[in-house]
Structure formats: structure tokens, C-alpha cells
Automatic annotation (TrEMBL):
Gene3D superfamilies, A to Z: 1.10.3730.20
Species of origin: Streptococcus loxodontisalivarius
Record has Membrane as a keyword: yes
Transmembrane segments: 30-50, 57-78, 84-104
Keywords assigned: Cell membrane, Membrane, Transmembrane, Transmembrane helix, Transport
Entry's localization field: Cell membrane
Membrane topology: Multi-pass membrane protein
Similarity-based family: Belongs to the drug/metabolite transporter (DMT) superfamily. Small multidrug resistance (SMR) (TC 2.A.7.1) family.
Record's keyword annotation contains Transport: yes
Name of the protein: Small multidrug resistance pump
Length: 107
């Protein structure tokens, strides 16, 4: 169940970040408020995740997956540019998440 909560926290973080971008610096107030509420829900759920998963492992998964998916959404939804070094950096993040999961504390 803990990993389901983690997945939900990741999803809410991605939605919240996307809403934050869509709010255009809070010039679209409703989207900005929706972003804040979504991110608050994300942190509340993530706090529950930390009851069952070590902080380092949980944060590595949460932030790593969030970074990768948010970057992909930025490219496709917001037409943000990317380059080979950006993609290489994302690959390194993914490798780091895998290493933390395989060999991190608690394993």
C-alpha cells in the first residue's frame, strides 16, 4: 500500500507542477490555487509514505520520477526545447533512482 501512496504522491506532484506552469506566475489565479492545493495533497500523502519507506529511497523515487515525467510533459505540452545533455542528465537520474532502490538503506 505504501508504494501506491508513493505513486499517488508522484502523480499529484506532476499535476501540481503542471498547474503551476499553466497558472503563468499566478496570473491565472484559479490554476495557481489548484496547483497549491494539489501540491499540499502531494505532501500530505508523501508524509504517509515516509512511515513505510526510508526517506532517502522514497525521496529518490519521488523526485526522480517527478523530474523525468515533468520534463517529458514540458517537452510535449509546453513545447519546451531539450538537447542531448538534458536527456543524458535525465538518464543519469533514472540510473541513480535504480541504484538507490537496489542498494539503498533498508535493503
Amino acid at each position: 500500500m505504501t508504494y501506491i501512496y508513493l505513486a499517488l504522491a508522484i502523480l499529484l506532484e506532476i499535476i501540481g507542477t503542471s498547474l503551476l506552469k499553466a497558472s503563468q506566475g499566478f496570473s491565472k489565479l484559479a490554476l495557481g490555487i489548484a496547483a497549491l492545493l494539489t501540491l499540499c495533497a502531494c505532501f500530505l500523502i508523501f508524509s504517509q509514505v515516509l512511515k513505510g519507506i526510508n526517506l532517502g529511497v522514497a525521496y529518490a523515487i519521488w523526485s526522480g520520477v517527478g523530474i523525468v515525467v515533468t520534463t517529458i510533459l514540458g517537452i510535449y505540452l509546453w513545447k519546451e526545447s531539450t538537447n542531448l545533455m538534458t536527456l543524458f542528465g535525465i538518464a543519469l537520474i533514472l540510473v541513480g533512482v535504480v541504484i538507490v532502490n537496489l542498494y539503498g538503506s533498508g535493503h
